[in-house]
């Protein structure tokens, strides 16, 4: 059977993660990149009918006045990432992707994100949420028609929105739908408007960010009503990944973690946005929560995220774990993690597109909890231990190839 032609629609298409994923995809298509870092290229997934890299096409929304080509060049120059040969070879394709990036929405994104937005975006700033959804849908439909796509996977890699409290949100879509006509009184933020737009068109949505996206119950219901699927939330790429590997070890050896302190410093645009305390609190909630869930008790924890401009896309996390062993003996584990943020995230985003596309093609509906190993807050998966989460993914894969 002919391979389906699939669109990847990045929300935040000119950001570090999207730019790295787009360049990586072009590299894979031109056979200028190898598969290191790509989970979907591991042997246990070889028998799955995953889409080939060649059939994927990128478009998206963003809010800033930069080009994708400039963003790739900036990452290359300032953070010393990417092979110069690949960057040079990808110029034509990057420019083509740029023509497919449309102005998004900044509805309820807070002042720090609003400040990033281009002047052209401000024309949309008083748009009713329903009109924003319709405009997003028109962009998605044009992308699908112009490129003759069988399906589009919408991936949120936009800046982290301020934390939202959804306690009063109606749990059913029929009630929430009405709020889209309420202008500023509508409690949903942009990430959820993008999810609504995708679901109403029957398109899957992946939330790689801590923003709410599809988490309100009514949106989960909408996905089910439109027979589509979603996965999230907030990519697990560095320090939290290590926590989900190390905490189960302390639990299995009956060592008592008394405190776990993690200090993170980095200097990319994501770090600049997270420098605003209201945006930062949304991120920190996800980084801290898993320890108590894995250990079964709550050690004292501290997570700090600081924006240090000179670090660029390179993140250093220093973790100090103070634990108690036999006869009350206190001991310490410390580690430093020095990772390049966008290059850790980009392959996972590409993997998620392939896995979610397959699940969608096979008729899976609603929340896809089997991809929880990719996320800090794995929606639908209670167990945060990385080993367990990887087994869930492998078991799903084994069932697909039976
Ligand atoms: P970034 O700041 O480089 O890129 C974000 C992009 O989103 C920017 O181009 C910005 O203009 C755009 N944007 C902001 N608000 C938007 C909106 N409402 N609509 C459309 N576009 C919008 O950030 P990044 O490093 O690429 O990270 C992207 C997201 O992924 C962040 O939320 C981050 O917290 C999350 N994340 C990243 C990693 C990682 O890099 N390792 C891991 C987990 C989660």
Please give a structural write-up:
It is a single chain. Strands 3-2-1-4-5-6-11 form a seven-stranded parallel beta sheet, with helices on both faces. A four-stranded mixed beta sheet has the order 8-7-9-10. It has helices spanning 16-29, 68-79, 84-89, 91-99, 110-116, 119-122, 129-146, 173-179, 190-200, 217-225, 239-252, 269-274, 277-295, 341-361, 386-400, and strands at residues 6-11, 56-62, 101-103, 151-156, 205-207, 229-232, 256-266, 300-307, 314-324, 330-340, 366-367. The model has no long low-confidence stretch (mean pLDDT 94). Helix 7 crosses helix 9 and helix 8 (173-179) packs across helix 10. The chain is globular. It is of the alpha/beta class and 402 residues long. The structure holds nicotinamide-adenine-dinucleotide. The site of nicotinamide-adenine-dinucleotide has 34 residues, from helix 1, strand 2, helix 5, helix 12 and helix 14. Nicotinamide-adenine-dinucleotide (NAD) binds next to helix 1, strand 2, helix 5, helix 12 and helix 14.
Condensed summary:
The protein is an alpha/beta fold and 402 residues long. It has helices at 16-29, 68-79, 84-89, 91-99, 110-116, 119-122, 129-146, 173-179, 190-200, 217-225, 239-252, 269-274, 277-295, 341-361, 386-400, and strands at 6-11, 56-62, 101-103, 151-156, 205-207, 229-232, 256-266, 300-307, 314-324, 330-340, 366-367.
């Amino acid at each position: 059977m002919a391979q389906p032609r699939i669109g990847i629609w990045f929300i935040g298409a000119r950001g570090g993660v999207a730019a790295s994923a787009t360049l990586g995809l072009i590299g894979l298509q031109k056979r200028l990149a190898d598969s290191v870092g790509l989970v979907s290229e591991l042997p246990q997934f070889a028998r799955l009918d995953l889409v080939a890299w060649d059939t994927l096409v990128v478009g998206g929304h963003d809010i800033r006045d930069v080009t994708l080509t400039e963003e790739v060049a900036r990452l290359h120059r300032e953070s010393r990432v990417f092979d110069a040969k690949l960057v040079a070879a990808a110029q034509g394709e990057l420019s083509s992707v740029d023509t497919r990036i449309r102005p998004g929405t900044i509805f309820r994104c807070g002042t720090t994100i609003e400040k990033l937005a281009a002047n052209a975006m401000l024309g949309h700033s008083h748009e009713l949420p329903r009109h924003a959804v319709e405009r997003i849908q028109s962009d998605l439909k044009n992308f699908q028609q112009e490129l003759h796509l069988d399906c589009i996977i919408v991936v949120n890699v936009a800046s982290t929105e301020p934390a939202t409290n959804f306690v009063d949100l109606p749990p059913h879509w029929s009630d929430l739908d009405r709020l889209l006509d309420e202008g500023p009184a509508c409690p949903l933020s942009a990430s959820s408007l993008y999810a609504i737009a995708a679901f109403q068109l029957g398109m899957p949505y992946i939330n790689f960010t801590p923003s709410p996206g599809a988490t309100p119950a009514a949106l989960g219901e909408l996905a089910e009503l439109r027979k589509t699927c979603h996965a999230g939330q907030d990519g697990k790429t560095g320090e939290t990944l290590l926590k989900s590997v190390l905490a189960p070890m302390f639990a299995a050896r009956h060592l008592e973690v008394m405190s776990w302190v993690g200090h993170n410093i980095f200097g990319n645009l994501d770090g600049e946005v997270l420098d605003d305390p209201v945006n930062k609190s949304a991120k920190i909630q996800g980084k801290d929560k898993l320890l108590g869930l894995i250990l079964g008790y709550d050690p004292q924890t501290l997570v700090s995220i600081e924006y240090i401009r000179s670090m660029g896309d390179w993140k250093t996390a220093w973790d100090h774990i103070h634990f108690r062993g036999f006869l009350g003996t206190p001991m310490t584990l410390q580690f430093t993690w020095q990772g390049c943020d966008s290059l850790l995230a980009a392959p996972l985003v590409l993997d998620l597109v392939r896995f979610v596309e397959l699940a969608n093609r096979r008729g899976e509906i609603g929340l896809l909890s089997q991809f929880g190993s990719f996320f800090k807050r794995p929606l639908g998966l209670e167990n945060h231990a990385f080993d367990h989460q990887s087994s869930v993914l492998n078991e799903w894969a084994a069932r697909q190839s039976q």
